[in-house]
Amino acid sequence: MDPSCPVVRTTANLAFVTPLELTGLLLVLAAGAGLIGSLIGLGGGVLLVPILTLGFHVDIRLAIATSIVAVVASSVAAAPRTLRTGFSSVRLGVFLAAATTLGGLTGALVSGLIDPRALYALFGTVLLMSGAQMVLQRRARSRGPATEPKVSALSISLELRGSYHEQGSDEARGYVVQRPVLGLSLMYVAGAVSGFLGIGAGVLKVPAMDVAMRLPFKVSAATSNFLIGVTASAGAIVYLAKGGVDPYLAGPVAIGMLAGAWLGGHLFTKLAPSIIRWTFLAVLGVVATQMLAKALGA
Which helix (H) or strand (E) holds 139? Predict the structure, then answer.
């Protein structure tokens, strides 16, 4: 193995660990990130970047490039199962992809013009508010809707509807996208924050679909995972073309993420929505805390 590759260099920072053992550790941790990311719709990048930078002392730029390539692999692994069961909505994903991509471009262009601490504080606060709103809306839904929600004319014209099958049930559960314009606006904001801070936008995409667009949580998480894979593909191509991806690092990480996401895609259809929802909220709380800590200079 090339002595200059990140996997070998990192062994100098970890006592009693050989390059082979380190590669195995990367596989296991990446598999865990892929499993959790595919279950809650974050793609795994939000967990993988801290693992690489804090745990393995990998340069942040290389960690981001590796994460983007691995997220594409995890999305591909999890998508077939969720598409087959109807949880992932391709039509909705394509509808939202344009806003997310445009937002990402905007965030990249204005990067450096806004005080990062202010943006971290705003982002962390929005995440906490989104989590609280998800909990409150869940309680409201459990009591049953007071009135039948009004279906948007745009949702009807674009056929933004679908159905899915829960594990062990032959009955299809249908849904219609509510407030698509608001959802599109929030996706633009999510993309802009992602482009500015260099983080995955899944932490904002899932609440936007769950709270604003009134989608079932499993549909929100599965569609977010599919959408993250689509938008990350463009970034992966750029990083690969520029030579910013190290195969010695990206190889085991992508394989681990692929395996974890494949398992996550199968568990996703079997687990209760409440388990997936509370797992997402726990991760959301951790990310929000990290953002607020950065805002305070911690």
Answer: helix 116-142
Angle at the Cα of 86 (from 211 to 42), degrees rounded to 5? 50
Measure the CA–CA gap between 74 and 106, rounded to whole angstroms. Answer: 26
Q: How many other CB atoms are found less than 10 A from the CB of residue 155?
A: 20
pLDDT of residue 166: 73
Return the ∠ at Cα 163 (arms to 285 and 85), rounded to 5°.
Answer: 75
Q: Are strands 173-176 and 161-164 parallel, antiparallel or unpaired?
A: antiparallel
pTM: 0.74
What token pair was written down for 18?
A: 């050989």
Angle among Cα 91, 94, 98 to the nearest 5 degrees reads: 150
Q: What is the DSSP letter of 260?
A: H
Spatial neighbors of 32 by CB under 8 A, at least 6 apart, are 47, 260
User: Regarding predicted confidence, which is higher, 109 or 222?
Assistant: 222
Question: Is the confidence at residue 23, as pLDDT, over 60?
Answer: yes
Q: 42 in helix, strand or coil?
A: coil
Q: How far apart are CA 48 and CA 31, in angstroms?
A: 10
